[in-house]
Fold:
Amino acid sequence: MILSSFLVFSSFHLSAKPDEITVYKEVDDISLKLHIFNPKDHKATDQEPAIVFFFGGGWKGGKPQQFYPHCEYLASRGIVAISAEYRVSSKHKTTPKECVMDGKSALRWVRSNAGKLGVDPEKILAGGGSAGGHVAAAAAMAKGMDQPGEDTSVSCVPKALVLFNPVYDNGPGGYGHNRVKAYWKQISPMHNIDAKTPPTIVFLGEKDHLVPVKTAKKYQALMKKAGVRNDLHLYPGQTHGFFNLQKSKEKYRETMIETDRFLSSLGYLTGEPTLSE
Structure:
């Protein structure tokens, strides 16, 4: 669907609702769900790319509705776009380790059910903001941290990552180190980069008080050393969470246009972005 006015698109996104909500995991009497947005006239027999987003909230809280606008737009461009629930400490008394377990479970469920979802199992992507960016990246890179009993023969590694001010350094001095101190080398994306790391686009405000610019530049350098693409977009004067539609329509639009172009360059989208610059 191509809409000519950004104002129309903004209203469309703010009132976005998923086409389907389905349970992907049940653990400890908790049902975790995927909020699914389908392209227009989508059918189960289609084989479209899919992207799974994980909300931010410091592993403590947050809601999948954060990424409804992103999902609605990408669905309008032909991607099955999903916003995932995962366990957080405020509701479930869990640790970051369980967040990553759930991220891996969500990606495995989408790949295992690709035939029912109208998804190409070889074109599954992931993204997220802040701690949700960490969940997406760690699901791709952390060794182990799998839900006990889960079929680990099904890959949980996405083909690409779309990360908004992501928490990706959990080492000493990095975000949340004390909360993951016993296993930080395992869960920290910064410390698990290799040649198999998915190509990644990162959006970061230069005044982010949680994820310093120097961390993003170090991450980019390590990705380059590993021979992996890392597109880093820095935004002067912007703070943590600047990309959310509720915070800035302009920055939401700018970051989604760059996301669109990144995914197009990898072959997951065709044509020009339908959000006007």
Strands lie at 20-27, 30-37, 48-54, 80-84, 119-129, 161-164, 200-205, 230-235.
